[in-house]
Fold:
Amino acid sequence: MSEPKTSTQLLPNQRIFVALDTPDVGRALELAKSLKGLVGGFKLGKEFFTACGPEGARQISALGMPLFIDLKFHDIPNTVAGAVRSAMALNPFMLNVHASGGRAMMQAAVQAAREAAAANGAHRALVIGVTVLTSLSRSDLAEVGLDIEPLEQVLRLGLLAKESGLDGVVCSAKEVVALRGTVGPDFKLVVPGIRPDWASKDDQKRVVTPRDAIDLGADYLVIGRPITGADDPAAAARRIVEELSGA
Ligand code: C5P
Structure:
């Protein structure tokens, strides 16, 4: 695996991770083959992984494109370290953990990724934190005992993630500017909820276009249905890359 590039070195297509949200490995492979070389990589999440397992992930990985293993680990540090070691066997470009698992858990995740990479002679995956799930409102947070504005909690966990050695966080586009001001220029911001203006919003409530997300300061975009649900996924991916490349 090549060294992860800094954001300013990335080509527009390298910023796009396509969410292969399907329980069907054949469908995921078909999509991945049609998008290979057009985008930056593929995100495999809980739906795919629970149905298709690491063997399914290996089939996608065998195409040679960067993988984002989106399993949002959240457990005691020893268990998360073990999960990260197991995920590293798939040689991912990026994986994630819940920042609310705390400093020791995040440090254990990064150390496990570093050790596994050294043992495999591979580059360490970027370890990314999930701060506050964007599905949670202020009243949802209050119900679980957090009497705080979601954005304030996002910034707190973003900073803790950075201090714990993580490489970045997943966040919504509306959090990008505030996070960038808090965590600085080199911390990766990975943004889902992306919709080109020609695509359906589906169940996403607050969406931004790919171009606006990058202009706000996002490093990587996670895009699912606007590409995977298109009649011609490769054409949809090309159109998004063109929009990102335009002046
Ligand atoms: O199809 P769509 O573009 O909405 O897919 C977005 C992907 O990003 C899905 O895999 C979804 O689980 C993930 N995601 C999200 N919103 C978040 C966090 C993750 O849509 N706040």
